[in-house]
Specification:
The protein contains four helices and no strands. The longest helix has 40 residues, at 116-155. It is mostly helical. Helices cover 64% and strands 0% of the residues.
Length: 160
Amino acid sequence: MDVRRQHPLEYRVPPPVVDAACALLMWLATRATPALQWDWSALWRWGLLGGLSLAGGLIALGGLWAFQRAHTTFNPLHPERASALVQGGVYRFTRNPMYLGMALVLLGWACWLAHPLAFACIPLALAYLQRFQIQPEERVLRAHFGSDYEAYCRRVRRWI
């Protein structure tokens, strides 16, 4: 199976950079249209920001920890360097805990901003990650781990 990049953007931009750009876009969109901001209490905004960010951070760190325990790379720009197929820990529930965790943090940020355009930006980041990071990673992992990876994909969902 060909594991070369099929598009120049495939695993080029680190996912945290994609998410930071999305967070900035969310903030800029809310500043450009302040009249659309919802009237949520500070308690709700802080609670949702804190809860979702904490959950997302723990899920993402769980993914990093599982990679570290397996002594494999967690560098998303070089999936071909994977030396182990991690299936334990949080990887029993999601194939992409780091991306899921970052998505939850973005959702918390959208709740803090309390603005419809902030929520509308999240699918843009997820679509970018899906096309240019996750699908190419899966192609590399299929080529590298073969039937073991295929069986893992049948057992565990991509997101949740």
